[in-house]
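INFO batch 0412 | record 1 of 1 | parsing
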Amino acid sequence: MEIVLTLIILALALISFVLEWLPVDLTAITVAIVLMLLGLVSPEEGIAGFGNSATITVMAMFILSAGVTRTGAIQVVRDLLLVWGGKNSIQQILVMGIIVGPISAFINNTAVVAIFIPIIEDWCKKQGLSVSKLLMPLSFASILGGTLTLVGTSTNILASGLSEKLGYGDFKMFQFTTLGAIVFAIGLLYLAVFSPRILPNRKKPRNGSISQGYELDDYVTEIIVSPNSTLIGQTLRQSEIQRKFDVDVLELIHKGTHFPQPIADKVMSAGDILIVRGSREVLLQIKDERDIEILPDFKFNNGGNLEKELNTGEEKIGEVLILSNSRLIGSTLKDLRFRQRYNATVLAIRRGQELIRERLGKVPLRFGDLLLLQGPKQSFLGLQTTRELLVLEQRDVENLRLDKARYAIAICLVVIILSAFNLVPILVSALAGVMAMVFTGCLKPGEIYGAVRWDVIFLLAGLIPLGTAMSNSGATQWLAQPLEMVGSTLSGYWILLFFYIITSVLTAILSNNAAVLLMIPLGVQVAETLGNIDPLAIMFAVTFGASNSFMTPIGYQTNTMIYSPGGYRFTDFMRLGTPLSILMAVVTPALIILLYNPF
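INFO prediction complete | emitting tokens
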């Protein structure tokens, strides 16, 4: 009965992950609670995930990554792209990969990609390139780079913790670096040769006009307050037109003088011109109710430039990306009071290939959404410091603690050296590094909490008890039996290939961490029963299979991050990522056998 209950919970959790009934972290916590309620794990086992060494280490590495990011330590390499990138597409991808990959080996790759998206966009603009040619290789290179060391991804750290729990000791800092380096080199060569041929020009070079890709000509226009309008003598707030109608007033022009945001308390007069975002249908409703005149030929229509019209004085237009740890996810612009909170107006939302330009206030925001904003330049400077959104332009160096960069690099090096030479456990050195970041001023105390990807922490903490329940109930052994029967008829290479492929498929459907938590105990059980293969070999195959997810924009966080900025379609990932996934699946097991002789 315990096996049946555990497997039912596992099945429901998988269904919830796929159908997105709840965010993955809440699903994981719910699983832990249900396991405790049913007595499948004790209360102590149910909350053990929060105190697990892997969970705490992952949390510390997020903070260390934030310290490096906040001090601008990575910014120094951006000029290398311009110096070494050249005009040849193969050279450009190789240079980018050689820079990004080793950085991703030590810094969380979502942080690395967040830093490099604006750098790549700026580089593409100067080179006249489509960003769709480079952003996907950027993501894939960072994923491959994460397999170079123990701390490259949370997946590696979690796999190390599971290995220790199962009695095979934790992974050392550079235990699989040789394997990772060869895999990285093969993957990068594939990207350099085939990306230019496979990836289309989804997003043309901007030539200074961000808004053209959002097709806003029919959604931004001018209206005039007529002499008989009921708006006369009212402020925008009093008129409630922004609350009652699906419109945003971007600018008010009174007798030739432009008044940008905030303009909620500006009193309107006859003859005032309002620049508004809204559909023609909504504007006609306002015309009927408030007696306004709609100008049919707004200045930026018919080949003009929206930026020239709205980038006046201290105003500007720009794009921001919703990050994976953003508290905005799941909320609407109306719920958030976005305009009041950030002093900027959302003109449109890009979600992959989908463009959303109507009823923006009612659209629940998602990770990876790209927002086109208009507002004061000072608002964009403020957005560069928020942890909720990523401004897709070069970060103002004034917002970085460049004088602390050498301390951040030194701290990370000490953490790595202490762990690599087994002087102290990685958990201890990472926590010490966190405190060193604060003591040296690389991070402020309040920034520590915002640096942590709490969704990942709660996912780990919630799923670790599920692994315990599967072991306690015998579900792991029960599931391993058919795998053992299959494995007894296969050679070692095919066993490793089997686990690699199953893990990759689970990663594409669920998440890399969930795949590792499910597959490593099963793999170890199979290896122990068969007795002819080293369990570490299967653990390596599972770890690499979980990390190298290229086939979909949702299989890995960095893929989701570049989905909208690159203007990609879902099929673009399949066209470039599927052959790479097959190549990695074929090569990785063979390299494990060659390098580690697991038989």
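INFO post-check: The CA atoms of residues 229 and 291 lie 5 Å apart.
INFO record closed
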